[in-house]
Amino acid sequence: MMVFDVKRPLIPDIASAAGVSTATVDRVLNRRPGVRKVTLTRVLKAAVEVGYLDAADMNRRLGPTFAKVVFLLPQGSNPYLTGLNRYVREMAKLSVEPLKVSSHFIESFDPEALVQALRRYGKPSDVVVFMAIEHPRVRQVIDELTSLGKRVVTIISDLPTSSRNAYIGIDNFAAGRTAAKVMGRFCRAASGKVALVAASRAYRAHMEREMGFLALIEESFPHLTVIGPQEGHDNRDENYVNASRLLARHSDIVGIYNVGGSSDGIGRALRESRRDKAVCFMGHGLTPDTRTMLVDGTMDMVITQSPSAIYARAMEIASGEMAETTGTVAMEIYFSENLPAVR
Predict the structure, then answer these.
(1) Residues 177-214: pLDDT tens digits?
(2) N or C, which terminus of the chain has less Cβ within 10 Å?
(3) Sheet holding 127-130, edge to edge
(4) Taking 80 as the threshold, does the pLDDT of residue 65 lie above it?
(5) CA 157: distance to chain centroid?
(6) What's the pTM?
(7) How many CA atoms, within 13 angstroms, populate the side-chain half-sphere of residue 290?
(8) CB proximity list for 210: less than 8 A, separation 6 or greater
(9) What is the mean pLDDT of residues 22-46?
């Protein structure tokens, strides 16, 4: 009597049948987050076909996969980030399986505080979402987390030189060029100065906006001279002091571009100098203060990105509905005439 040795199917057999990598099969079989539903189904069906699982086991595994998602958000006086913090916390209260969402605040512009928070909250989570700071130690801890199988998602400000899984936000270089295009068209003076105001170059987003702005001004509007940037650390009082000094020293300022937040401090300086109608002022983040300044004419244009869009994209990535890549959100541009309704 001959005895045939029936070889048990292995992960490579499932991968071959499903047309995916062995890493994807491993993630599915070990119920790790980050696999799209269609891929999950295909892998499990292939596992049944090759005899690795039975149909009942496949149906159980097709149930919801639990994932713990944590947001780490900068705490400070920036009205846009304050609003984003509020929105994330409100949505986190509503989160249900298979996603459990929480959020924590960290000190803005402090890479060490971000590193500590990433280690503290990232390791016990499946997905960590945060606004990246450009620093070697931040890149190092991102690499640590991804090596542990965590999914790391940057929002608003990216760190593409790290092993992060995805970025969600606008194209900041294009945002800077857009601001320059509008600024150059609005400033009809034969010559003049345009002041750049930044929060901090710790954020790549601000550097990219600055570079885009400078590049297009040089290319298309050589009659405008850019001065700055002045760093205000997204603080309305610092922005007020810096803007007041700039306006006092330069009578020929025709425009101000704030690449960061807390534009209300700059608006205050413009109004007090009585140059709010003469200087073209634009910035980022549609918030109650920038909305008011658009309406009263202190600001001319605001570039923003929807907190709800950022959160929705983050949830798509966390649930595996969107591939690990960039999740660029729409760059929304507002003037006084096209402001959306307040909700």
Answers:
(1) 999 999 999 998 889 999 999 988 889 999 999 999 99
(2) N
(3) 99-107, 67-75, 127-130, 151-155, 166-169, 326-328
(4) no
(5) 5
(6) 0.81
(7) 27
(8) 176, 196, 198, 229, 259
(9) 82
